[in-house]
């Protein structure tokens, strides 16, 4: 795999994984969220936990790509603060769709 493909693959995976918690009611897109045995709507804190876990997974994959394609460089807290901010920006469309987009019933003709 060349470096260009790895970068674009990582960006696409980050975009999909950042929005996934807001588009599905399943925990980590696999397990249904249940309360009292019935399927329920996931709370915001659970969606935030999912975003942070997906951020860690995408970051780990990025470090794997970096070490496979060349030398791995040590990062400081600034790197993680900036990448987390960028990841949250990628998650914004899913947040808007879930919490800010008004869904109106279809008009009957």
TrEMBL record:
The chain crosses the membrane at residues 6-23, 44-65, 77-100. It comes from the Bacteria. Keywords: Membrane, Transmembrane, Transmembrane helix. This is DUF2818 family protein. It comes from Achromobacter spanius. The lineage of its organism: Bacteria, Pseudomonadati, Pseudomonadota, Betaproteobacteria, Burkholderiales.
């Amino acid at each position: 795999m060349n470096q260009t493909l790895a970068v674009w693959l990582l960006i696409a995976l980050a975009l999909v994984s950042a929005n996934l918690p807001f588009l599905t009611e399943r925990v980590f897109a696999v397990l249904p969220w249940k309360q009292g045995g019935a399927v329920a709507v996931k709370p915001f804190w659970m969606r935030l936990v999912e975003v942070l876990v997906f951020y860690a997974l995408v970051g780990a994959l990025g470090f794997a790509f970096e070490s496979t394609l060349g030398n791995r460089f040590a990062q400081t807290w600034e790197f993680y603060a900036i990448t987390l901010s960028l990841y949250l920006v990628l998650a914004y469309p899913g947040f808007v769709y879930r919490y800010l987009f008004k869904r109106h019933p279809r008009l009957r003709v």
